[in-house]
Amino acid sequence: MPRVAPRALHARSALAAESVFSVMSRLAVQYGAVNLGQGFPAGSPPEFLLEALKTQAGAADQYTAPAGLPALREALAADLTTAAAVVRPEQVTVTCGATEAMHALADALYGTGTDGAGDEVLMFEPVFDIYRPQALLSGATPVLVGMTLTPEGWQPDLDGLERLVTPRTRALLVNNPHNPTGHVFTRAELERIVQLARQHDLWIIADEVYDELYFGEAPVPLRELAPERTFTVGSAGKRLEATGWRIGWIVSPAQVASQVTASQVIATQVTGLHQWATFCAPTPLQSAVAAALPIARQTGFYEDLRASYGARMRLLASGLRSLGLTVQQPGGSYFLTALAPGLDPWHLVEHGGLAVIPGSAFYAEGSAPDGLIRLAFCKPASEILRALERLESYLGR
Ligand code: GLN
User: Fold this and answer.
1) Which residues have C-beta atoms less than 6 Å from ligand 1?
2) Domain spanning 6-44+301-396: which CATH class is it, in words?
3) Which residue's CA lies nearest to atom 4 of ligand 1?
């Protein structure tokens, strides 16, 4: 038998645990549970996306450039440009999903200093499960900043954020709308974050995969507030209801013409490092997404999505409240959190036929609020009603 390298036995192998989302989905299948755990839409992607793929498979099947299919980089630049911030195709790198985008950024932006100590990366807790292992794999240290659960909902602890900046801090990671809480950072919160990043010269990584999924104020893209230092991550899977397609993107900071800036160097590295992982994302899927993005924009697809998710969110929230749970109403994403003190999601999936994600999956060991759970409402209303019935009979036993 080949020997496992000692390095793999320690730090890296400890990071190879199966993700809570795939464990819960597996248990949901095993126990025939309604799955409000892993966040993926239950239905098919829109017809215009599937039609686009039919014309592209067979026509665009070979490698494309690691930075992405030119047509997709152009479509994304057009789609993401706002009155406050122009995005140019050269700023876009297409990746295999937002997960690979975040990984490429971790690779390019941080690591271990010459003294052997890791860069520090600030991220809000509850924290989406990929951020910590990705930082650790790159040699950096994740530093968790609290989000406080108040009677009005979740609030990021921005004083805490300020206190946690050290000379080793290199980047600040903001997920907006935020998974798992559904919090949409206000403009004032984002401005304070940007001010801090400028004061300490930090990179900003803005994971904005739920950018089109909001129920009140639209989230402000961080690249509008800090174009010189923000890397934006986005996802066709989230926007176009096709999470298995694995088409994500990075928008690197705007480049200053005729001047080699740090952001320009890093932007080149991002594509260069992504190239060693996957070379390029699947070409026919990139091509189909390029065709679908303007259609989604022109046909009001995102408005329809928001209306339909908003209705399902309210159905789930009011159902949970009537069962006595405390619900934090989300401003965006397709998740909400609730407090059900004493409820054990591992027992619930096996004996109550309902899969939800335990809040502890998003916290450092032992620090999750008691009874915190996350539920996904990107499922048909009939599934949500079935989930509520199952929870009612489970709680009534
Ligand atoms: N983003 C999804 C969630 O939070 C799933 C992510 C995954 O399974 N890779 O449920």
Assistant:
1) 19, 21, 38-39, 179
2) alpha beta
3) 39
Nearest to 281 by CA among 240, 250, 239, 241: 250
Cβ partners under 8 Å of residue 233, min gap 6? 98, 101, 102, 105, 205, 206, 207, 208, 209, 248, 249, 250
Closest to 110 in 3D by CA, of 270, 272, 253, 271: 270
What span, in angstroms and rounded, lies between the C-alpha atoms of 250 and 67?
Answer: 10
Report how many helices (DSSP H) and strands (DSSP E) the chain contains, helices first.
Answer: 16, 14
Q: What are the residue boundaries of the structural domains of the chain, listed by start?
A: 6-44+301-396, 61-298
Per-residue pLDDT of the chain (397 residues; tens, 9 = 90+): 676 665 555 567 778 888 999 999 999 999 999 999 999 998 899 999 999 999 999 999 999 999 999 999 999 999 999 999 999 999 999 999 999 999 999 999 988 877 888 899 999 999 999 999 999 999 999 999 999 999 889 999 999 999 999 999 999 999 999 999 999 999 999 999 999 999 999 999 999 999 999 999 999 999 999 999 999 999 999 999 999 999 999 999 986 555 667 777 788 888 988 999 999 999 999 999 999 999 999 999 999 999 999 999 999 999 999 999 999 999 999 999 999 999 999 999 999 999 999 999 999 998 999 999 999 999 999 999 999 999 999 999 7
Looking at the domain 61-298, which fold is it?
Aspartate Aminotransferase; domain 2 (3.40.640)
Q: In angstroms, rounded to a whole number, what is the distance separating the alpha carbons of residues 313 and 375?
A: 10
Q: What is the pTM of this model?
A: 0.95
Q: How far is residue 87's CA from residue 78's CA, in Å, rounded to a whole number?
A: 7
Could you identify the atom of ligand 1 that is nearest to the CA of residue 25? Answer: 8
DSSP string, 2-39: PPPPHHIIIIIHHTTPPPHHHHHHHHHHHHT-EE-SS-
Atom of ligand 1 nearest to the CA of 39: 10
